Amino acid sequence: MEKETLRLPAEQLYQNEINALIAHETAPIPAGWQMSPRSVLTYICGGKAGDTVITPKYVGDKRLVEICIATLVTDRALLLIGEPGTAKSWLSEHLTAAINGNSSQVIQGTAGTTEEQIRYSWNYALLLAKGPSFEALVKTPVYRAMETGTIARIEEISRCASEVQDALISILSEKRISVPELSAEVAAKKGFSVIATANTRDKGVNEMSAALKRRFNIVVLPTPADLETEIEIVRSRAEQMSAGMDLHAELPARSAFEKIVTVFRELRQGQSLDGQVKVKPTTGVLSSAEAISLMVNSMAMAGAFGSGKVTDAELASALQGAVVKDESKDQAAWIEYLENVMRKKGGEYNALYAACRELNP
Question: How far is CA 92 from the centre of its chain?
């Protein structure tokens, strides 16, 4: 069955590592958790549990991960904020996988998310047949998390309407859900918490109220600090993702990752890495997540239509789609970058430059 699943949840994908950490646990375990905060940190940042090597899930400031874990030990909810592609959802999933062994209690925030998706709704067939009852109640991920003393995840909370966000205030303050139709209240068990994520680019969509922000401990996840760190993030995640797909292609050489990450960082920062040349930024995000997707897509093209080895032709095709999101605005900026920055790099960039220019005559 697992072989037929497109994407396994973190707790299944890394089940051996979680089991090893639980088996070798020596520190105190908080109520509702399956391992100690120290073991959660090892699971996220990497290390060893007995003879089992724990692979790092998040490459970045270890102190930020410690703050996230310490927040969840208390009765405070956690809000992860950052640019798109800074691993907010990835970190949220792995935190819940390590703490509860269940990362599936997720609400995806959109403009269409309703208050009922936060609190509870009804099976109207049962409601009409038998009237209000717990049997007719449809539990949301937040409701189930409160019942079981586990963690619920809310993705892109700033995309939810204000009244939907406000439904969380009483839940996070009182740690209970009122069901007036049944004259009942559901109190949260120890271990209950919420991890929410929000993009800094979406701040103007539905700005969170000060009252709601006060219920969260806010952690800002930065973009990778340096080139080497970002290369390692993109390479390791591309390797993990491609391993679960039938791409029939080899993982590209490190030089390919270096070229793509360099291009992304220069366009993102609006200047060459040496600071000598200013470039026009494009409308796209060009995050680490986008770079990972680009490399996996290049491998797919090489496996399906090439020799199985990623060449500069595949990288150029994927780059074109990643950079030029709005043709009227991005095309000119991309060509300017090719001529003023990439062409002058020479060396290993010559073939990539030629392939990119071929797509932009």
Answer: 7
Over the stretch 107-157, which tens digit does the pLDDT of each residue have? Answer: 999 989 999 999 999 999 999 998 899 999 999 999 999 999 999 999 999
pLDDT at 1 over 60: no
The pLDDT value recorded for residue 31 is 92
Q: What is the per-residue pLDDT across 213-271, written as a single tens digit (0 to 9) for each?
A: 999 999 999 988 889 999 999 999 999 888 878 899 999 999 999 999 999 999 998 99
Last residue of a domain, one of 178, 199, 220: 220
Residues 104, 185 within the same domain: yes
Residue 71: its pLDDT value, please? 96
Q: How far is CA 35 from the centre of its chain?
A: 22
Predicted local confidence at residue 75, as pLDDT: 86
Domain of 72, CATH number, reads 3.40.50.300
Task: Name beta bridge partners: 271.
Answer: 278
Greatest Cα pair distance, the chain, in angstroms, is 75
Claim to verify: residue 96 and residue 132 sit in the same structural domain: yes
If 0-12 CB within 10 Å is exposed, 13-18 middle and 19+ buried, where does residue 16 land?
A: exposed
The tokens describing 243, both together, are 């391993």
Domain carrying residue 248: 227-359
pTM of the predicted model as reported, rounded to 2 decimal places: 0.88
Report the distance separating Cα 319 and Cα 329, nearest Å: 16
Strands 77-82 and 193-199: parallel
Residues 169 and 233 in one domain: no
Contact 83, 200 (CB under 8 A): yes
The total of structural domains in the chain comes to 2
**Which pLDDT tens digit goes with each residue over 10-26?**
999 999 999 999 999 99
Q: Which of 182, 204, 220 is at the close of a domain?
A: 220
Round to whole Å and give the CA distance between 175 and 170. 7
Whether residue 69 is found in the same domain as residue 205: yes
Q: Compute the chain's Rg from CA coordinates.
A: 23
Query: Burial code of 299-323, b = ≥16 C-beta within 10 A, e = fewer?
Result: bbbbbeebeeebbbbbbbbbbbebb
Dist CA 35 CA 69 (whole Å): 12
Residues 246 and 214 occupy one common structural domain: no
Residues 6+ apart with CB under 8 A from 122: 132, 136, 137, 138
